[in-house]
Specification:
Blueprint lengths: L2 H6 L1 E2 L2 H4 L4 E6 L7 H4 L7 E3 L9 E3 L12 E4 L4 E7 L3 E7 L4 E7 L1 H5 L2 H13 L6 E5 L9 E2 L1 H9 L7 E3 L7 E3 L1 H11 L7 E3 L13 H4 L6 E7 L3
Parallel strand pairs: 3-6, 4-5, 9-13
Antiparallel strand pairs: 1-2, 2-14, 5-8, 6-14, 7-8, 7-9, 10-12, 11-12
Bound molecules: zinc ion (ZN).
Length: about 240
């Protein structure tokens, strides 16, 4: 694809666009791994991919990581690294602290959310780099919407055990034993609980399951492709 077409395959958050040292975005189905190399925009950035395992493992990237890194959250303050999360219905979350110049990318599916991977990422940003959650900007990308994300009793019970409020799961209309999980609300809950301000949480309210421009595992199965979300500090 040409640069112009590539740019339209990526959604950004205006408030994050205004952070002078930041590059970020959420790709749609037309944005692929190789586009990071093709588009001139990415000159100087080294993309960092994870082997995502639906865990609560947070990696701090202080240098060029080895390939095959396993986990579900990446944090760095090194310029020139582009942290990449791949999803297909799960929720990608990008975080930036303007003051301390720390960025993070987090993969939040139902399993990682149950383990509070987002909460752990924000806490570890505070512990390691003295980031104040009150100054964090958070961007929630496209994911499967609360109206489409049907789960069973097992998930309902696991969330109750993990002390999540019952409001995150509502009964699926006309589907006994099925519930609808709100991944976005679960993310907001974790962020607000740690002191991230409501006004600093931005959300792209697209349902990947409903919008054919986005990959959806639930809709299209294994071959659906992946939505690439990325964030990085512009190299100096
Ligand atoms: Zn939907």
């Amino acid at each position: 694809m040409k640069d112009r077409a590539l740019r339209s395959a990526v959604i950004t958050i205006p408030r994050l666009e205004r952070v002078p040292f930041l590059k970020h975005g959420f790709g749609n189905r037309h944005w692929r791994d190789r586009d990071f190399k093709r588009s001139g925009d990415w000159d100087g950035f080294h993309p960092v991919f994870l082997k995502q395992i639906h865990s609560d493992i947070v990696h701090f990237i202080d240098g060029m990581p080895q390939p095959g890194l396993r986990g579900d959250a990446l944090v760095t303050r090194l310029p020139g690294l582009l942290l990449v999360i791949k999803t297909a219905d799960c929720l990608p979350v990008l975080l930036v602290d303007e003051k301390k110049r720390v960025v993070a990318a987090v993969h939040c599916g139902w399993k990682g959310t149950r383990l509070r991977v987002l909460e752990k990422t924000v806490k570890s940003m505070s512990d390691r780099y003295s980031v104040d959650p009150a100054t964090i900007l958070a961007a929630l990308g496209p994911c499967i919407g609360a109206g489409c994300y049907e789960v069973g009793e097992d998930v309902l019970n696991l969330y109750a055990e993990a002390a999540f409020p019952a409001s995150l799961l509502r009964p699926a209309p006309g589907r006994p034993g099925k519930h609808l999980l709100d991944l976005r609300a679960a993310a907001r809950l974790q962020l607000s609980g740690l002191g991230v301000k409501e006004k600093n949480i931005f959300s792209i309210d697209v349902c990947t399951h409903c919008d054919p421009d986005y990959p959806s595992y639930r809709r299209d199965g294994k071959g659906c492709g992946r939505l690439l979300s990325f964030i990085g500090i512009i190299p100096v």
